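Case study.
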Amino acid sequence: METPIVVQDVHKSFGKVKALHDISFTVNEGELFGLIGPDGAGKSTLFRILTTLLLADKGQATVNGLDVVKDYKAIRKIVGYMPGRFSLYQDLTVQENLDFFATIFNTTVAANYELIEEIYVQIAPFKDRPAGKLSGGMKQKLALCCALVHKPVVLFLDEPTTGVDPVSRKEFWEMLQRLRKKGIAILVSTPYMDEAMLCDRVALIQNGRLLEIDTPQHIIEQYNKPMWAVHAKRMYPLIQDLRSFPETESCYAFGEYLHLTLKHGEADLDKLQAYLQPKGHEEFSMHPIQAGIEDCFMELMKSEKV
Amino acid sequence: MRTIFFILQKEFLQIFRNRGMMAIIFLIPIVQLLVLANAANYEVRNLAIDVVDQDHSSWSQRLVNKLTASGYFKLHRQTFNEKAAFEDLQLDKADIVLMIPRHFERDLVREDKASLQLLVNAINGSKAGLANGYANNIIRSFNQNIRTEWLALDGRNGPAIIEVTYSNWFNTRLDYKVFMVPGIIVVLVTMIGAFLSGMNIVKEKEIGTIEQLNVTPIRKHHFILGKLIPFWIVALFELALGLLVGKLVFHLPMVGSLWLVFLFAAVYLWVMLGMGLLISTFTETQQQAMFIAWFFVIVFILMSGLFTPVENMPHWAQVLTWFNPIAYFVKVIRMVLLKGSGWANIQIYLLIMLAYAVVMNGIAIWNYRKTT
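After joint prediction, the assembly is written out as follows.
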C-alpha cells in the first residue's frame, strides 16, 4: 500500500505573495490529518495542489504514490474532494447530485452504499429537496456523501465545518472518525483550533509555513508553562490591565476566561497580586489550568510572528 | 460516451428546472418574432404632407389627389399659408411640404414650364430620402400624364414614352416581413448559441461547481460536449419553433429544402457555441461573459445584412462581413427559404462555416483549462 499523501518541499507563489513556503509532510494510511491555520494561511492552496487543480512552483507531492503533476488523471479517479465552498448543484436535488457524482465516477450510489450509509440516512429525508435549500450542516453532509460516493482512497476536506452549527460539527467529526477506521486517509483543514484534538496528527500552518507537525497530545505535552484562568466581572479592563502588566507573557480571551501566562511562572504571582490589588476588579477569580491545544497554537503562532 | 450522456442528462434537468431559462427558450423567441417582424419595417407609408396650394387650379388639385391616393402620403393640412406649413415642419407634424406656386397651371400651359417646391423634414435621413423619392416619382408621372394629355389635345404627336413594367421575383408582393422573419429567426438562434452556452459554462465557475467537477475523471471533451450539445439541441428546436411561427403567423414562404436550413444551422451553431465556449474560457462571471458575447453579437448582427444590405456598406465593412458568421446564415436562410437555393448554391457557405467552426472550437478548446 502506497503512502496516501507525501508532500515534499512544496512552494507556491501568487505574484509576490508566497502562499506556500517549503511545505513537507506525509499522511499515513487510515490517518486523520488536520491542517490547522487561520484564513489566508495557504490551506486551500495546498489542497488545490494536492487535488491536481493547481501546479506547485517547486517541490513534489504524491497522492497514493501518484505524482500530482504527471498522474493527475489517475489521482482524480481515486480521491474525494470537498472544496471549501459548497460546490454541488444547488438546483439539483440531494438524490440527483449524488447520482450525478456517482455516475461520472462510473459507479452507482448502490455500489458503495455501505460507505455512505451512515451519512446518507441523515440526509435521506430531504432527498427530493434542492441542495441549495438545505441547511449548512446538511449541505456539508451531502458534500461529504458526494465526495465518498466513488469510494476514494484519500479524502480531501477543505474547511468542511466552517459555517456549520456546533452540533452538526460534532456529528461531522464523528463521521470522519468512522471513515478513518475504514482505512481512508483523510486530510482535513479547519480554522477551528478545538477541532485539532479530534485529529490523529495536526500540522499548524501560518503565512504559508508549517509551524509544527505532531499529535495533539504531544503538542500539549511540550507546552510546559503554568497557566491560569482569570475572571472578573468586567473583563475588558481586566484584559487591558493584565496585558500592561510587565511580567505578563501572554493573555488571551477564551470564552468567559482569560488565559494568562507569566514570564517567570509562579514566581511572578505575588507581583501580579500587588499589581492588581489597587485596580479593584470585582468578582476576581484566578485558578491554575492545564493548557489546551488552542493555547499551544496561540503560543506557536506568536513565536512565529516574533 | 457514457459520461457525456450523464452530463447531458444533468444539463437538461437543470435547463428544464430553471423557469427563467424556460421563458428564454419558449416565450421570448415567439414574442420577439412577433414584435420585431411587425415593427422592423422599412417601408415608409403615411408620410404626413402639407400642401401649400396657392394656385387652386384643377391641375394642382389633381396633383394633390395623385399624391394622397398613392398610399405613401397622408394629407395633413392644405393651406394658402406658407408659414403654417413651415411651422408644421418645425413641430415635426409634417414630414414633407409641397409648395404649388400661384399660376402653376397657367405657366405650365403658356410657358411650357412651371416649378414646384418640396420641403422635406430630413432629421431621419432615410425616411426623408424615401419621401423625396416617392414624391418625385409621383410628380414625374403626373408631369408625363399631363404632357401626353395636353399634347394630344394639341393634335400633334407626343414624344415616345418609355414605359417600364416590372415584376418582383422571390418576394412578389414586396412583403417586408417575408424578408425580415428569416433574419430574425437567425438572431434568435444565435442568441441561444452564443449567450446561453457561454453563460452556462461560466456559471459553473461562478458558483464553484467546476472545482468539484474538475477533481473527477470527467475529461475535457466530455465536459465541453456535455455543455454545448444541450444548447445545440435547444437552438435547433428554437429554429423549428421560429420557422413554425413564421409559417403560421407570417405565411413565410419555404421554397427550398428545410433540411438544408437545418443542416446549415447545425454547422453554424457550432461556430456560435464555440464562440460562447471561447468567451467562457477567459471570463469568471456570467456578467462578463454576457457583456463580451453581447458586444460581438451586436456587431455581427448590425453588420450581417439583416437590416441594411451588405452591398450598401463601404468596402472595408464588406470585407469584415466575410468573417461574420451571422451574415452567412442570414444570407443562406433567405436564399433557401425565399429563392429555393439548393445544395449547389450554399455548399461554399457551408464549407466556410465548417472551417469557422473548427477554428473557433479549436482555439476555445486549446484555451480551456481544467486546472486553474
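Observations recorded in class. Residues 2-40+174-367 of chain B form one domain. Chain B touches chain A at residues 2-3, 6-7, 10, 13-14, 17-18, 207-209, 211-218, 371-372 (CB under 8 Å). We will return to this complex in the next lecture.
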